[in-house]
Amino acid sequence: MHTHHLATILAITLTSALIAAPRTPAPQPLPRTSDGKPDLEGIWQASSTAAADLEDHAARFNMLAGRSVVAGAEIPYQPWAAAKKAENFKNRQTADPLSKCFLPGVPRIMYLDFPFQIFQTTQAIAIAFEWSLDYRLIYTDGSRHPDETTFWMGDSRGRWDGDTLVVDVANHNDLTWFDMAGDFHSDALHVVERYRMTDPDTIQYEAVVEDSKVFTKPWTIRLPLHRRTDRDRLFEYACQAEAEELNGAFTREERTWYPGNGTAPPPMTPAAAYKRAPGAPPTGANIRRKPDGKPDLQGFYEPDGGGANWGLEKHADDALTPPGRGVIIDPPDFTLPMQPWAVEEKADRNRSERGYDDPTAHCFPAGVPRSMYIPTSFYILQTPDYLVILHERIAWRIVALRGREHLPDTMRLWQGDSIGHWEGDTLVVDTANLNGKTWLNEVGEIVSYAEHVVERFTPAGPAHIQYEATITDPVVYTRPWTIALPIRRAKGDLPEAACHEEDHDLPHLKAIKDAAAGKK
Q1: Could you tell me the pTM of the whole model?
Q2: How far apart are CA 62 and CA 68, in angstroms?
Q3: Rounded CA gap, 379 and 475, in Å?
Q4: By CB atoms within 10 Å of each CB, which of 93, 241, 393, 401 scores lowest?
Q5: Tens digits of per-residue pLDDT, 450-489?
Q6: Residue 15 and residue 9: Cα distance in Å, rounded?
Q7: Cis (ω within 30 of 0) for the bond into 266?
Q8: What local confidence, expressed as pLDDT, does residue 283 receive?
Q9: Total H helices, total E strands in the chain
Q10: How far is 405 from 408, CA to CA, in rounded Å?
Q11: Among 457, 401, 420, which residue's Cα sits nearest to residue 280?
C-alpha cells in the first residue's frame, strides 16, 4: 500500500514537471528549390556592428560599439600591417574607400548596414545590394576564375557542399577595406565564404580570409544574416549621386526632376490610340525554355544599340559622336515628337560645356530605357518570381513577375519600379516611379519624372531577343514613341566596369564647364 502510494506521487510529480517545462519548438524545415538545394532567395541583412569594426570595439564617431565577429577575436596582422591598420584608423574619415562611395569589396559588402536580395538559379546566384545598386554575380556552373584580371568585388565562383553554399572569391584588387576601422588587405586576398541556413529566416555566414602579404595566418569571420520579413523589395541608395546633390556638384533641373508637390503631369493620349507598325515580332524558332514553359532569357548579352547612346534618331557621325542607324520605329517619321521647349533644351545640352551635366558622366545609373542600349554588356538572371538585369556599369534592375503594385508616386528611383508579366512568349515590363534625373543619351535627349516605359522582350531565336520600349512622357513629348533594337546573347563572363572608382573624364568635363562659365 505504501509502495503504491509513493509511485502515484512520483507519477503526478513527473507529469507536473513535464507540463511546466518549456517546450523546445520543433525545427522548421528549410525552404528548398526544385533541385533540392536550400532556397536562399529573399531579402536579407546583417545585424552586427561588423561594418564599423570586425574586432571588439568601443563607440567612435559614426561607429557603434560591438563585439568581435572574428574567430579568436583578433585579426592576425603582420607587424608592419598592424601599424598600417592603426594609420588607417586614424585617417578613417577620409581614407576609407567607402567614404568616397567606392565599391566595398568582399566580404565587407555582406555586412554593411543595408539590405540585399538573393536570386538563385542552377547556373548562377545574384545578390543585389541597396548600397549604390551594387551586385555580386556568383557563377555556380563549374566555371573557373579568369586569369590575371582583378576586380573591386573580386570574382565569385560557387558550389554546393551538401546544404552549404561555398563561394570562392579571388582576383581582388588592393583598394578596398574590411570595415570603417581600417582593416585592410593586399591584392593577394583570397576569401572562401560559406552560406548555411540554420532556419528559414537565418543564414549563418562565414568567410575565411587568407592574404600572405598582410596576415600571419588565415582567419575567419562569422555572423548571422537575417531575413527582412518587413520588406517586399529593394530600394536604392545611389551613394555618389546623393553625395553630389548634397555638395552641389549635381544640380536640379526644374523641368525634368520630380517636383514632389503633388502636381500631376498633363494627360497624354495612350500609345494604343496611334496607328503604327505591329508590335513585338513573332517568337523565333528553337528558343530555350524554363521548366515552366516560359522562354529562358537568362544569360550574358550585348545590345546592338545602333548608336542610340549618341542619338535615337538616324544620324551621321561628327567630331564627337559616331553615326547611328536610328532605333525609333514610331512615330512614322522616325523622329522624337518633342515639345518646343524640349527642342531648345536638347540643343542647349548639346553644347560641349553641358557634357558635365549628363548623369552617366558622373557614373550615376543610366535609367530606363538607356541602360538597355548603353554600349556595355549585361547579364539576365531569371527565376519564376523575378527577372534581374545586372549591368556592367554596376547597376541592377529587378523586375517583379508576380503582379505587385507600383510604389507610391512620392517614391522615385533612378531605375524606376518595374513590374513584368508574360503575354505568350513576350515579357512585358511596365516601369514607373522614375525620378526624371536621367538623360536618354550623350546628346541630351530628354525624359522627365512623368516618364512611363513599357518594354517588350521577345525571344527571336536561341541567341537573340528583340527589344522594344514605348515611352510616354507628357512633360517632354506630344505623343508616345517607340524604339526597337536587337539584344544578342554572347559568350563570356560579365565584366566589372567600376565607373566611379576609375573615372578620369569627369574632371575634364568640369574644367570645360567652368571655363565656359568664366566667359559669360
Answers
A1: 0.92
A2: 17
A3: 32
A4: 93
A5: 999 999 999 999 999 999 999 999 999 999 999 999 999 9
A6: 10
A7: no
A8: 74
A9: 6, 19
A10: 9
A11: 457
